[in-house]
Specification:
409 residues, 7% strand
Length: 409
Amino acid sequence: MTPQQPGSVRAAGRLTLVYIGADAEVAPAESLRALTGVGAVFVPADLDAPLRALVSVPADADRLRDLDPVDPAPALSAARQSGATVVAAGARGPELARRVRSLVEETGDVELLTVPSGPVFDDCLAGQSLVSLLRVTRILRERCPWDRVQTAGDIISYSLEEVYELADAIAAGDRAEEHGELGDVLFQVYFLAVLLDEQGAGDLGSVAESIERKLVRRHSHIFGDGVAETPAAVRGQWERIKREQEGREGIFHDVPATLPSLLFSRKLQRRAAEVGFDWETAQQAFPKIAEEHAELREALVAHGPIGEFDDPEVAPATGGDGRTDGSSPLEMRHDPHLRHEFGDLLFAVVNVARKAGVDPELALREASQRFQRRVEGAAELAATEGRDWAALGLDEQERYYQRAKRATG
């Protein structure tokens, strides 16, 4: 149920949810005034003394009632019908607010008012949670033996790992997992900001201010007098502002060389497109794949027939490699021309994917996961029939693979 504001249609009962905050020093004046002249005022049972004393002044101590912030339902079951007020105060205030809202949604017969009203209430909850996380991060940096010795170079590897885990959760459509992974990524940002603060190079606040200014500057069609009515126009304006207002120089400005190869190539292609060097459509770019495919085929044919062991990592350690003629796997791997042609083909595929609006990294990841799922399914199908899939010939393996493909998608 969406929180209602004063003047809306009344439900059978009413609850008022008042945000006070984590500390007595920063309690909103509007929230304190809202506690004057009301009925029962429920506060978290574990509320610290300064906050309890602050709330008891406008609410009168004899009207305060304790409730369990983890399970507020018993305390509110009867009071909600008579217009009770719940104070979201203390470290667990945001958690209490979420639980009260959940109760209101479950019953459906209670009007919920918030103070402050509207989106400001949610902003207050979010702000408190973000500040609380910053405090925890600082404590870990000061007191935890492991966190004390970390550098930005150490942390960035974990940050990349967390981003990939987030990508997996999004690709899987697992919203609960996505929620958790977002928290992991957020903590990486906080920790890096704390390290920045230690070096006198900024802090979390200045980081937020900087990206806010950048977003406002680059969205002049929202915050200024610019005009951009299509996604393509927005992107063009974004890149133009970077070049003209932010002094970005060169066609391939700010393309990190450390990017994964698929992302690196797509980024370069985008930069080239910004100066007009690009196909107009994916259909126009598509024939390039066939061209590069043919050139790669010629390069492979030049090495002679391919024997039993195509991968040097799985070829026998001793003895022959299963070939009667043609190049060895190591010779092929070290052929710069062959590597060149493979690169051109991959680059052409990335280009078509970009023009089609498909992220090649995610597409390849999903394809790899499908392959993994199908091979595991094929092995399981064979096992149910008393057969070892890994010991079967390729034709029989393929039959099980196709069965798994039909079963798992």
